[in-house]
């Protein structure tokens, strides 16, 4: 039996924890990393002390400000510095398994199948991963281990912060059954309300329906997908970063958002994070994708192919924002927004564009711009400066 074992790692309150680690005077206090109070924008991450007031990621900063006490610390995100911490975490995790897939700055999947022989039982592997991260960067993470990606991810979310949740194959259904339907992927605009109308509220409720019933209700494709997940069946493949097809970042709001400035700022941050990771991995892509979900799960993606590949925050943001503006979506309540970059340029043509191979023949984007980002990332890595980001800080209007 080749039972696969997948581990999902999710750092706890990542941005906020880095700030509290680096500034002991912030420890034990509510802290928000995100937009400036008094301006538009959202909370990127907040400390657990702030969460006690009901504040969470993607909450409008004005609402967070209303809830939080005066001693709260508000900081602007410094993606490059957080990215450097992220890089150290990912490198440290390679001591656990050679197969590490970074899914965002603070999340990774590891294939730990067969590692029992080297490290010990799954629980010990989980503890080892937490210890390795703590040694490398002094932060806590929540770890989930399960037979596939879906279960591992839900498990890491199960006990936060500093959690370790193990769900073995024979425990999957008991683990899934009480969870709300929202944990299932691919519930479309019509499926979610439909299931609710049928009186189904938990994964267990859905699991009690037959495949045939679900297909009748939701259609063959969605019905099959939901049936599989309700039975704990999902992908158990972990892709190393070299196989990564795209880099993306999405934000789910706590409530539906119509404020255009807020949506724009959220996309700006996403572009910063995505651009930073792409540059760290030495990638440029020619496809920018916008993902948006409206009230009631109605989800759309739009892509644009660029004439010249990019990894520049500003370019990625402008393309994604352009995709949004090109639709008749203004004023519609948004639940989730995100963007991604993919369509990687091969190393050879990248080299050519940068003039390594055919100096003087380059036709790509301004190489000066590449160098600007290189310099900015290097400076931010070194000094953690907040101010040195292009096209990210909002100008006073
Ligand atoms: Mg996290």
Please explain how this structure is put together.
By secondary structure, the chain is of the alpha+beta class. It has 3 domains: 1-169, Reverse transcriptase/Diguanylate cyclase domain (Alpha-Beta Plaits); 177-230, DNA polymerase, domain 1 (Orthogonal Bundle); 245-383, 2-Layer Sandwich (Dna Ligase, domain 1), CATH 3.30.1490.100. Helix content is 39%, strand content 20%. It has a 5-stranded mixed sheet with strand order 5-6-1-7-8. The longest helix is centred in the C-terminal third of the chain and has 21 residues, at 260-280. The model is unreliable at 354-365 and 383-397 (pLDDT under 50).
Percent helix among the residues?
Answer: 25-40%
The distinct ligands, each listed once, are: magnesium ion
CATH class call of the largest domain: Alpha Beta
N- to C-terminal distance: 63 Å
Q: What is the alpha-carbon Rg in Å?
A: 22 Å
Number of helices: 15
Large-scale geometry = globular
What is the assigned CATH homologous superfamily of the largest domain? Reverse transcriptase/Diguanylate cyclase domain
Largest sheet strand order: 5-6-1-7-8
Tell how many strands the DSSP assignment holds. Answer: 12
Task: Give me the strand/helix succession.
Answer: EHEEHHEHEEHEHEHHHHHEHEEHEHH
Q: Please state the second-level CATH architecture of the largest domain.
A: 2-Layer Sandwich
Structural class: alpha+beta
